[in-house]
Amino acid sequence: MSYAELLDVAVRAARAAGEVHLAHLGRASVLRSKSSYADLVTEVDGEAERVIREVIAERHPDHAVLGEEEGLGAGSSGGRYRWIVDPLDGTVNYAHGYPVFCVSVGLEEDGQRVVGAVLDPTRNELFTATRGGGAFLNGGPIRVSTTPTLTTPALVATGFPYDTSGERNLALVARLLRLGVPVRRPGAAALDLCNVACGRMDAFWELGLKPWDCAAGSLIVEEAGGRVTDAHGWPDPYAEMIVVTNGPLHAELLSHLGPEA
Description:
Layout: H1 3-24, E1 30-33, E2 40-42, H2 43-59, E3 64-67, E4 71-72, E5 81-89, H3 91-95, E6 102-109, E7 112-120, E8 125-130, E9 134-137, E10 140-141, E11 156-158, H4 165-178, E12 183-184, H5 189-197, E13 203-207, H6 211-223, E14 227-229, E15 241-245, H7 250-257
Parallel strand pairs: 3-5, 11-12, 11-13
Antiparallel strand pairs: 1-2, 3-4, 5-6, 6-7, 7-8, 8-9, 9-10, 13-15, 14-15
Helix pairs in contact: 1-2, 5-6
């Protein structure tokens, strides 16, 4: 089974979910909150995940699917392949009609990320990557920036979790702001990763992300020439703190994010 064939499934699943996003944009109902009052779920989250699962099951009914809304589905044990999907990353933005949200579809083979597709439906931007095959935006190759230092200045993004670790992140943001580094908080981690991959952003970090937030985007960054590690510099896209850069900035950013900084 080729990565190109698997990527085709990821793209079809992402586009199907994107159609759901656009069909309900501006009139989606908030169903409930999860970890806090601000951690929203709309009916679109569930509907988008259902269509993703349908597309995957049509071609690969024996593959496991880990989704933000439904957890692990059929075929979740014993197989080589696990799809990791966020049907609507940036739900709070979406619920308010703020057009910064996406769908993220990643695939692991024997525990290694091998395929990633992230679709921004409002801009019709599709980011894709396969292991060893490079990263692309709407079919054209992308690369990370060459910004050498944080004070060049770099453009850096972050996000805030819905629990009390958000207070910890405030201190990290303050460290960079004191250096004069521009820091943005768009609110959709998968898109933040892709913006690093294509050079719009130079770096990104966040605490408390889940695998579905970064399975696809982290592969896209790596295939675009960037680095994805934990707070200690170890390559771990699912770490408690994920640190993502163009490469040249990595050690410097880590020095400002560590507890001793």
